[in-house]
Amino acid sequence: MGFKCVISTSFADIFYNNCFKNGILPIKVTEEEVTYIRKPSDLSLPSASAYPLSLSPFYFYLSILKRER
Question: Mind listing the pLDDT tens digit for each residue in 35-54?
């Protein structure tokens, strides 16, 4: 079991909100984080964190309302 996500440095507002309606998690990160997570990762929604395999985790913002969808 898993989920789909899109990781980017920015999203248009309409695209961002439509992602949740279509079962896709949009994760907004910095350029440095994009470079850092280009390797396969394990994502955790409850803690809003990503764990790139064999690297330290990083955290991203995800509102409580969006987490519960």
Answer: 766 655 666 767 777 665 55
What is the Cα–Cα distance from 66 to 26, expressed in whole angstroms? 10
For the entire predicted model, the pTM comes to 0.59
Q: Tell me if residue 48 falls in helix, strand or coil.
A: coil
Rounded to whole angstroms, the Cα distance separating 47 from 42 reads 12
Mean pLDDT in runs of 10 for the chain (69 residues)? 80 94 88 70 69 62 73
Residue from 55, 49, 17 nearest 35 by CA: 55
Tell me, what amino acid is at 36?
A: Y
How far is the first Cα of the chain from the last one, in angstroms, to the nearest whole number? 17
DSSP tag of 55: S
